[in-house]
Amino acid sequence: MSNLHVQALHVHPVKSVAGIAPDEVAVEPWGLSGDRRWALIDPEGTVITQRRHPRLALAAARPAGGARIAVTAPGMTELCVEVPEPGPLEPVVLFGKKVETVAAATTAADWFSTYLGEPVRLVHMDDPAVRRPVDPDYALPGETVSLADGYPLLITTLASLDALNSLIAQGDHPEEGPLPMNRFRPNVVVSGAEAWAEDGWLRIAIGDAVFRGVRECGRCVVTTTDQETAERGKEPLKTLAKHRRIGRSLAFGRMLVPVRLGTVRVGDEVRVLL
């Protein structure tokens, strides 16, 4: 029996906005059900994230029955947003590449524009099966992804976070630690592993789903953003740069692509197959 188990699951309906921590969730080919199917764009059609607007950390989105989501933010009245009806496709730019989406209602655009203090719009990925392929340098034919940064799922381990926090405590900015896991916005958090064991996971099973480990997750400035206050610091990037540089990445966590679908649950055993 493996000592590895799912400690937490996280779904973020709107990219760069706080999400939910369900006890179980279905695995779809492009990620966990409902994860990062919505995103905000600026007037030029470029996707907006916490890299540009740290205050997105203070907003939250959750399923609201049927296909709706409910969004909240400080100083704002909760808004329910319906999945848009099929209509003209809205090309947006995500990390320099075009992705086709469908625009949400203008009420959502007005709500988020008021909160951020500049004009933005909310868009929805209607059909992840055809809209966006996984990076061809790492993908198998036909693999697709939602509006996540690049891959369907991100997995992290409690042991690696503990190890990173120990390094931060010995570094130049110990006052910023220990950091919580939400700095890294993972989908699956695993307990019972050794620190950095996930670096070598090529194929794992969780519940009745199977995933292939694709590559390390390169971290960005979002990880320096306190998800409770939206304030930025120096960590964990300063420490990752010293101790966790893999190629060009400051690495924490591992990217996964589903190879067999199913349902994953908190408490599920995690089995390393390769």
The helical percent reads 10-25%
What radius of gyration results from the CA coordinates? Answer: 18 Å
Indicate the overall shape.
Answer: globular
Mean pLDDT across every amino acid position: 97
Poorly predicted runs of 5 or more residues: none
Continuous helix count:
4
N/C terminus separation: 16 Å
- Please indicate the percent range of residues in DSSP E strands (runs of 2 or more): 25-35%
Query: Helix and strand succession?
Result: EEEEEEEEEEHEHEHEEEHEEEE
- Beta strand count: 19
Structural class: mainly beta
Q: How many strands, what sense, and barrel or not for the largest sheet?
A: 8 strands, mixed
What can you see in these coordinates?
This protein is mainly β and 274 residues long. The chain is 12% helix and 32% strand. Strands 1, 12, 13, 14, 15, 16, 17 and 19 form an 8-stranded mixed sheet that branches. Strands 5-4-11-10-9 form a 5-stranded antiparallel sheet. The protein starts with a strand and ends with a strand. The mean pLDDT is 97.
Q: What would a concise description of this structure say?
A:
By secondary structure, this protein is mainly beta. Helix content is 12%, strand content 32%. It has helices spanning 106-116, 128-131, 158-169, 237-243; strands at 5-9, 24-28, 31-32, 38-41, 47-48, 60-63, 69-72, 79-81, 90-94, 97-103, 121-124, 153-157, 188-191, 203-206, 209-218, 245-246, 249-260, 262-265, 270-272.
Provide keyphrases for this structure.
five-stranded antiparallel β-sheet; mainly beta; 12% helix; 274 residues
